[in-house]
TrEMBL record:
<feature type="domain" description="DUF6351">
    <location>
        <begin position="34"/>
        <end position="767"/>
    </location>
</feature>
<feature type="signal peptide">
    <location>
        <begin position="1"/>
        <end position="26"/>
    </location>
</feature>
<keyword id="KW-0732">Signal</keyword>
<dbReference type="Pfam" id="PF19878">
    <property type="entry name" value="DUF6351"/>
</dbReference>
<dbReference type="InterPro" id="IPR045556">
    <property type="entry name" value="DUF6351"/>
</dbReference>
<protein>
    <recommendedName>
        <fullName>DUF6351 domain-containing protein</fullName>
    </recommendedName>
</protein>
Length: 777
């Protein structure tokens, strides 16, 4: 490559010809070169939006050199600054220099080293997955571009069929393969009907608008609600950039973003789910399009003049590699700034896994977002696997108890909350038997463990997609379908290719809180802990049969004699410390140490329907903040609403509050904890409304209106933080002496012996934290 290296730039600096590492050799306050679209060490795609701060009439006197060669980038002036996009960057380090001769005849310069990466990625996230299914055609964006003839990646046909998205009609041939799933950027237009978006013909639609086109008010005038969408691929994922386009462009001009209606602010949209990778996902504006509540929010955001950017790489249901999600958001935002301009600020919006991304971006990549609206949040997914992995173990135990004794107390579904902590109901319909009576462990989490932990279970849709696209039948044969294997470059693997995982329940005393409260007796407490068992090692897993084995008991470590005090207790599983450490050090655990941006955590209260997005998650985030960085806790406020409330309206209200916060530099009065009724009216707001959850104060108005439930781990003694993978252990003998058990339990000699055999390594002592966190994290 014919370009300078960083060393060369520094050598020139030494003799006074240029600067090194972004600093001019003789700093002049009248000339300063900066990059607007990204950090200079993370440029992608060969271009970057730069700005030059200059004094006086120097605009027309600027001389640019890229890697020693004269360039003439198109620039626009705004006050004492000019900006524009510099193109032609080579992969690796590039030196960009700007010079002008000041009024005294002295040449003044500044320079930057720009480190450029391919737009196909990666920057810092390690090797890219293969196999990796491209899905641009499902998005209506066409087949990906051929980038190799080596059989690597997605087959590309010369005449793709209609019924099978990627397979050619009879007689067609493979043109090549696409490892990067790339397409050329495309421009599409959509109009809003008041209910949904439809494709819009920009050539004729402005003059002859569709009958169902909705109008909006812009600067006092009624204009058509038309949106311009740029679609393309970055870092192998499909991105979109959407902005209002209420005015027709010139027919002879290349379609550019018309910023007339832009309020100069960006919303970055993030989606939820938990996925195991190996596929691209689909573009949000295409294919199945936007989901109902998503469409309602995005339409209201656009109508206010915000731009909206998104990538399929920021859908947690496509993959749960949060560093890859971070990298993809960085690159997508960079593209937005290059194509449109630098926004005044960027606000993240997204639910579930989209909320997780906001918290982890704030922790791992300050500056990527300026504020966030996490909806139905979790602090992260990895620590959520801790209590979720307990659910099937407990439900299988209850199922066995009822099968052995139809009169068992566990036949009453609501009673299971005593052990599981989360809500249970005698009336909510159970999806397994379609009868009244269920728990959050079933309605919310049934099936979650196999889809994250079971290395041989894959979503059946993968096979269908691979078949439709012409992949060989065994394309996924070597894939191990767990979160940890998906991030094998972070967690590592053993000699058989299995990644270590963090699932651990050694020493965990299920139902301890219920025993302490006198809600269960010692015999039931001992039987639960003797029989609950644990999950097998990944190498021992078999395919999950969801119909015949709803709780995946075939993959549990169990014992046929566990109910007999003289029998064999079901063994517990020790998670790998290396996996626990890696989860922390890779940034996949939200620790609470850093939250430098304002966040409004919006949550519809779904406890009555046993939804997986339970109420305690927002307080798990806050508890981590309070424990690690109390000042950061002031950046998070929590809003609860009833399910019947207009959820999009609350998100838009939160957007308005954060907009004012960022625009003025101070928190408005509405940036406060609050809860709302079905009409949207405030029930209560202020510092004490959630009292009684994280402190010992009497319940606040919101805490009383919206009860917060626990988890199996919390019943066993853990805190609401929920970030302990592996508890500290103490001997059973110590627990029997120190008041761990209530006096009323009165363990007999036989009971104590049984307890020792259930917990040969000791029992959890949550007063002293955990064994699974690295020394420095």
């Amino acid at each position: 490559m014919n370009h300078w290296t960083r060393a060369a730039a520094c050598a020139l600096a030494a003799i006074g010809l240029t600067g090194c590492g972004g600093a001019a050799h003789a700093p002049d306050t009248r000339l300063r070169l900066t990059v607007l679209s990204s950090a200079p060490q993370y440029v992608s795609g060969g271009d970057a939006r730069i700005a030059v701060a200059v004094a006086g009439d120097a605009h027309g006197k600027l001389l640019f050199r890229l890697n020693g060669q004269r360039i003439d980038p198109p620039l626009t002036a705004a006050g004492t600054r000019v900006e524009g996009v510099v193109s032609g960057l080579a992969d690796g380090d590039n030196v960009l220099e700007v010079t002008y001769v000041n009024d005294s005849g002295r040449a003044v310069s500044d320079s930057l080293v720009l480190t450029n990466y391919p737009v196909t990625g990666p920057m810092f996230t390690g090797p890219q997955q293969q196999p990796f299914v491209c899905r641009t055609q499902e998005s209506g964006l066409g087949q990906p571009l051929v980038d190799n003839q080596d059989g690597i990646g997605h087959p590309v046909f010369d005449a793709p069929g209609v019924d099978a998205p990627g397979v050619g009609a009879p007689g067609t041939r493979v043109l090549g393969y696409s490892r990067y799933c790339a397409i050329k950027p495309q421009i599409h237009y959509f109009y809003h009907t008041g209910e949904s978006f439809k494709p819009f013909d920009a050539a004729t639609g402005y003059a002859k608008p569709p009958a169902d086109l909705k109008t909006i008010t812009l600067n006092g005038a009624s204009v058509p609600f038309v949106v311009r969408v740029e679609a393309g691929t970055i870092n192998r994922f499909a991105y979109t950039i959407a902005m209002l386009a209420p005015f027709a462009g010139r027919a002879d001009a290349a379609p550019q973003f018309d910023t007339t209606a832009w309020n100069r602010k960006l919303v970055y949209w993030l989606r939820g789910g938990v996925g195991i990778g190996h596929q691209q996902g689909t573009a949000i504006w295409f294919s199945s399009g936007m989901r109902g509540i998503e469409r309602q929010i995005i339409s209201r955001v656009l109508a206010q003049g915000y731009a909206v950017a998104n990538s399929s790489g920021n859908e947690a249901g496509v993959h749960y590699n949060m560093r890859l999600a971070e990298e993809t958001a960085m690159m997508t935002k960079e593209r937005f700034i290059e194509a449109v301009g630098q926004p005044a600020f960027t606000i993240g919006i997204g639910g579930s896994g989209g909320a997780v991304q906001q918290y982890l971006f704030a922790q791992n990549r300050p500056g990527l977002l300026d504020a966030g609206i996490p909806v139905q949040s979790y602090p992260d997914m990895v620590t959520q696997t801790i209590p979720v992995a307990d659910c099937p173990l407990l439900e299988q135990y209850f199922s066995d108890e009822v099968a052995l004794d139809p009169a068992s107390a566990w036949k009453t579904w609501s009673r299971r909350a005593l052990i599981e902590g989360s809500n249970a109901s005698d009336t909510v319909v159970n999806p397994i038997n379609d009868k009244p009576g269920s728990t959050e462990c079933i309605n919310g989490w049934q099936g979650a463990v196999p889809t994250v932990v079971n290395p041989v279970y894959k979503d059946p849709r993968y096979e269908l997609v691979a078949q439709n696209y012409g992949y060989p039948p065994d394309v996924f044969a070597k894939v191990k379908w767990t979160h940890w294997n998906d991030l094998a470059h972070i967690y590592g693997t053993d000699s058989q290719g299995f990644a270590p995982n963090s699932i651990d329940n050694v020493g965990l005393q299920y139902g301890l809180g219920a025993l302490l409260a006198g809600r269960i007796g010692k015999d039931e407490f001992l039987r639960i802990n003797a029989c609950v068992g644990s999950w097998k090692a990944p190498s021992q897993f078999v395919m999950w049969d969801s119909a015949a084995d709803p709780f995946d008991a075939r993959n549990m470590q169990r014992s046929a004699t566990c109910r007999d005090p003289a029998g064999l207790p079901a063994p517990r599983r020790a998670g790998e410390l290396s996996a626990m450490h890696a989860a922390y050090t890779s940034g996949h655990v939200f620790t609470g140490q850093r939250l430098g941006i304002p966040m409004i955590d919006v949550r519809p209260y779904l406890e009555p329907v046993l939804n997986m997005h339970n109420a305690r998650q927002a307080f798990s985030v806050r508890a981590r903040l309070l424990d690690a960085n109390r000042a950061a806790a002031n950046k998070q406020v929590i809003w609860f609403t009833t399910p019947a409330a207009d959820q999009p309206a609350h998100v838009i209200d939160a957007l308005g509050v954060l907009d004012r916060y960022l625009s003025t530099g101070s928190a408005p009065a509405q940036f406060a904890d609050a809860c709302f009724d079905a009409s949207g009216a405030v029930i209560a707001a202020g510092a004490s409304v959630w009292d009684g959850i994280l402190n010992q104060q009497p319940k606040g108005a919101c805490s009383a209106a919206f009860p917060v439930y626990a988890s199996p781990r919390m019943v066993a003694g853990d805190a609401v933080k929920g970030d302990i993978f592996k508890c500290k252990l103490k001997p059973v003998a110590a627990a029997l002496r120190d008041g761990t058990y209530p006096e009323a339990a009165r363990f007999s000699a036989r009971d104590k012996e049984w307890l020792e055999r259930i917990f040969p390594q000791g029992v959890c002592d949550y007063r002293f934290g955990d064994q699974g966190r690295p020394a420095r994290w």
